[in-house]
Amino acid sequence: MFYIYCPYCGEHREEEEFHPKGEAHIARPSDPESCSDEEWGDYLFFRTNPRGIHHEMWIHAVGCRKFFNITRNTASYEILETYRMGEQPSITDDSREPLDVAQARTENTPADNLEGARA
Amino acid sequence: MNQLNRLDRGGRVDRSRELSFTFNGQSYRGYAGDTLASALLANGVDIVNRSFKYSRPRGIVAAGAEEPNAVVQLGSSEAGQVPNVRATQQALFDGLAARSTNGWPNVQRDLMGLVGKLGGGFMPPGFYYKTFMAPASMWMTYEKFIRKGAGLGRAPAERDPDTYDHVNRHCDVLVVGAGPAGLSAALAAARSGSLVILADEQEEMGGSLLDSRERLDERPADQWVADVVTELSAMDNVLLLPRTTANGYHDHNFLTLHERRTEHLGETAPEQEGRRPVRSRLHRVRAGRVVLASGAHERPLVYGNNDVPGNLLAGAVSSYIRRYGVVPGSKLVLSTSNDHAYRAALDWLESGRDVVAIADARAEPSGELVEQARAQGIRIIPGAAVIEARGQNRVSGARVARINIDDFRVEDEGELLECDTIASSGGYSPVIHLASHTGARPTWRDDILGFVPSLVAGVQAAGGVQGIYSTPEVLVDGWTAGAEAARAGGFEALEADLPSVEMRRDGEAVALYQVPHQKATLRAPKQFVDLQNDVTAAGIEVATREGFESIEHVKRYTAMGFGTDQGKLGNINGMAIAARCLGRAIPEVGTTVFRPNYTPVTFGAIVGRHCRELFDPKRYTAMHQWHVEHGAEFEDVGQWKRPWYFPRRVQGRQESMHEAVARECRAVREKVGILDASTLGKIDIQGPDAREFLGRVYTNKWAKLAPGRVRYGLMCKDDGMVFDDGTTSCLAENHFLMTTSTGGAATVLEWLELWHQTEWPELEVYFNSVTDHWATLTVTGPEARKLMSEVTDIDLDRDSFKFMDWREGKVADVPARVFRISFTGELAYEINVQANYALHVWETLFAHGEKYELTPYGTETMHVLRAEKGFIIAGQDTDGSVTPEDLGMYWAIGYDKPFSWIGKRALTRPDTARADRKQLVGLKPRDPGVILEEGAQIVFEPEHAIPMPMKGHVTSSYYSPTLDSGFALAVVKGGHHRMGETVYLPMVDGQVHEAEIVSPVFVDPKGERQNV
User: Fold this and answer.
1) Are residues B410 and B461 in the same domain?
2) Which residue of A has its CA nearest to B458?
3) Domain end: B767, B802, B823, which one?
4) Phi and psi, residue B891, nearest 5°
5) Are residues B367 and B225 in the same domain?
6) Which residue from B193, B324, B617, B879 lies 20 to 30 Å from B375 (Cα-Cα)?
7) Is residue B887 part of a domain?
């Protein structure tokens, strides 16, 4: 069971007070109508799911009800930092540049394959 | 019966307090301070169980948590039954009643033993599955008997009369284990002033010092233990938890400690203040630092028939003699690979019984203990080991032969020594289980022939658990770890203050696991590796031959290290044998993963007080008691208890649900009904940007909703799928009241917070749950206005208080908000009043309502009425794959709103825009008497070969008293364009129902009734 420092409450609390809300820093495109279907699909469905350093969003659900971010090692479960919404992590996985998922997929995957996968 | 193996003196038992107990119905006597195991050995009980697979007789092997055989069922009454108790860990109390968990019909005369004996040679790993699997249908029958034969203990059939507690704790330093390392660590940490918890699983703290031959400060070791325990128990910053097992080591230094408070007294535990005392506590500890001082388990050697009763661990022999004054036999042969085990022979000899010989696997044993044994005249056979035990129900002899470890063979015929006890020691395995729970893989160390834990942040290991076995070194290591842990918490540690202990000179141990036999492993007498799961060296060899090379696969194929045992005795030996068969080194084979719990924990302790009425909170509305008094049947909706229907007694007979619902439906359609709708989620939304916010989270338009008006809204996720719906009322320009589905209240509030906090923090808007503050009473039916006019000062004129308006006023003289919203299709008023006035308002309505035949109705009638109108329930008619367009609710979609609201963009994705998506329709069964099954699959071609293409499913289905017919809502592929078509619903029993696709609005399609 995790021991989580809530950056708003300013103290460590038990995991039972929180729940996870998935990968952090997934911003909603500011103009959804100008997104291609691929771009919108990537925003909706594709996540990095790394082994190692991961930035994830949590909510202090039965505490202050605030959303905040955690940098966590998904292999060791170590929490490296927590930071407020709108702030950037101070610890990142430098060994692997965070890849723009949309870019990686369109670069590496032939477009017709993509369509096949979506049908 | 005499305690024939009890010594006249020595040990820590109190011979002045004799206790009686029964085992398998037979009465015995023991002393206070005994464990059940020591008392059984004192009474000369050899067989305590039958083995799991082969049903071979088994005796006590160990003296602690690692005991694999003496697993018993405890309890003299049905309610007091406790399964899976290790006799070695159960303190004796007067009147204790224990039974073997294995053995059918009993351990002495066992039928399954015949199977084991006859079939033994033909029972490879997987035997039961391979033999009894076919035909598959018979497995359940076989299994019943196999299980009965295996017997794994049983839960009590009666309700547990005891209570259990959970305790949350924090400390600076948690020390696990109170042997020499743990006591020393706790002392160092405690004297620094840090908050210390010291947990130890045994009846008494002290660990190996309780049966040590060593002297600390020139005194017996247990005197130092007593001094330390006295000092620690007097300190305010120390919590001592004896009889407490650290069972799980979880993330971020969170450990679960299971404290057994009355198990040592069993059912005889005295009442406290007229109540049974709390039986056990689960301490949930968040520790700053953890010092693991869990010690080491001795490894038995693996030789032929090493499971016959009378084969013990060498260390256990010393424990029984020195701690309990019990010598478990008369003639001993010791087989060892190390010096430390010589204690057993010396202790045995000093008890006045015969030591026949010591077979030492080393060519030239030479340590201090070896010399002592020589000096006492004990025969030592170097370069040799017991290769095979003789005897059926008790050891009668030991075959000792010279062995060549490197070539894995026996060098000579050897000799058969007559004896009744064989003690063996193959070295020591650090108890790394807890450290492994964190996921850290242990590391093999050749110098100590064992795995030591890899440590995560915040934990230290001390003493035996990291392969340090010499007492003076263990004490120093413990102190160092304790002091370091305290310093890490910001405390100042003091200089070490430890007793002086003479350093013993030990000879080097040799690596011996499986002892070779003249015959090949597969043909030699069974050499047991895991006694609890009946895994033999041959079984492991077979597994490797059959291609199971990974130790994890070997484990699953053979069941080694499974069950309550978790590989305490056998794992290292098993890995060593696998390594030998595969021609690899032990670290290359690796180790399996140890998982919580370290020893079995009763469900009572896990559950604590979270049971019965405290299992899950129940939520009641303000009118709940009225519903109870008026005979309501209740339905659980989330945590809420909602009236389901109100059956009446008609002509001395209780109405059926069908009759009650039909009556309630008719009352609403023809007169007036009332529903307690208080459970609807209510969110108060305020702020200058509230209106803008609503426009972004709802699919429809909110810009022009004037104060006093109400609007229905659909909420989608950004994938375009509907996830909740409800009405929102404009209370004032910057003030709205949102309602959600009963089950969606918390989810929707969090959803709003999510978007506000993460995407649009610039919007000034505030959300508050007011679900519990307001009670909701829905008065609906053609007579609703007449009834309301008697109890309210609000102008109810249909032109000034229109459909989808709300008004503030008084109802039953209580301040109220009244909303003209209809979920039934009839004229309806939803009255919101402060919850504590609600019962008064409800009763006032009934006082005036009699002449209109005001009828209370429940959720079932609500469902029928809303479905007749085609009103959806989010989560029932939608399932996270249904868009507003699929529902045909185009009127609720603001395509031209300036902001791209949540869900909008996804509606034009190719998949969301497909023409053959499942769309909401009504279904009218051809036979009006048929009520289609909710969830039933819909097909277009009932003659199609199976599997038929499935084209949709029923989401809601009821009998309608208004239509006098069954009817249903369903989602059907391309359904909006299939009006009038016939679909088919094949049922499990072979029937195929026919239904016509119709509009989902079955009653009053023009919506005139809600506007009368």
Assistant:
1) no
2) A78
3) B767
4) -65, -15
5) no
6) B324
7) no
φ, ψ for residue B464, nearest 5 deg: -55, -35
Clarify whether residues B107 and B183 are in a common domain.
Answer: no
- Dist CA A95 CA B426 (whole Å): 46
CA–CA separation, B339 vs B382, rounded Å? 12
- B722-766, pLDDT tens digit by residue? 999 999 999 999 999 999 999 899 999 999 999 999 999 999 999
B854: which DSSP letter? -
Whether residues B187 and B262 fall in one domain:
yes
Last residue in a domain, options B857, B873, B893: B857
Residue A109 above 50 pLDDT?
no
Which of A2, A35, A67 has its CB closest to that of B252?
A: A2
Question: What value does the mean pLDDT take over residues B240-267?
Answer: 95
Instruction: Please report, for the domain that includes residue B602, its CATH number.
Output: 1.10.10.1100
Say how many domains are in chain B: 7
Q: B900 and A32 in contact by Cβ < 8 A? A: yes
Dist. CA B32–CA B23, nearest whole Å: 17
Residue B175's CATH number:
3.50.50.60
Q: Are B829 and B809 in contact (CB under 8 A)?
A: no
- Statement to judge: residues B43 and B185 lie in one domain: no
Q: What is the pLDDT of residue B795?
A: 97
Encoded amino acid at B127, one letter: F
| B859 Cα distance to chain centroid | 34
Distance from CA of B193 to the nearest CA of A (A): 23
Q: A109 lies in which domain range?
A: 3-118
The CA angle B931-B936-B937, to the nearest 5 degrees, is 135
Residue of B nearest to A75 (CA): B439
Q: For residue A53, what are the β-bridge partners?
A: A73
Q: Note whether A67 contacts B: Cβ–Cβ < 8 A.
A: yes
- When pLDDT is averaged across residues B781-794 and rounded to a whole number, the result is 97
CA distances from B192 to B113, B175, B195, B741 (A): 58, 14, 9, 57
- B380 and B514 both lie in a single domain: yes
Cα separation, A29 vs A32, whole angstroms: 6
**Residue B376 located in a structural domain:** yes
Q: Report the mean per-residue pLDDT for chain B.
A: 93
Structure confidence at residue A117 (pLDDT): 28
What six digits make up the tokens of B703? Answer: 């810009």
* Mutation for A interface: B167, B171, B251, most A CBs within 10 A: B251
User: Do B366 and B385 meet the contact criterion of CB atoms below 8 Å apart?
Assistant: no
Yes or no, beta carbons of B286 and A2 under 8 Å apart: no
C-alpha span between B678 and B837 (Å, rounded):
12
Q: Quick check: B906 pLDDT over 80?
A: yes
pLDDT digits over B288-308, tens only? 999 999 999 999 999 999 999
| Contact residues, chain A, for B912 at CB < 8 Å | none
Angle of helix A101-108 relative to helix A37-45, nearest 10 degrees, comes to 120
Cα–Cα distance, B991 to B993 (Å, whole number) = 6
**pTM as predicted:** 0.88
- Tell me phi and psi for residue B418, to 5 degrees: -80, 130
Q: How far is B905 from chain A (nearest CA, A)?
A: 6
Number of structural domains, chain A?
1
What ipTM, to 2 d.p.? 0.86
**Does some domain include residue B870?**
no
Q: Is A33 in CB contact (< 8 Å) with chain B?
A: yes
Sole residue written with tokens 């820590």: B12
B38: left (phi over 0), alpha (psi -120 to 50) or beta: alpha
Structural domain span for residue B365? 299-427+509-519
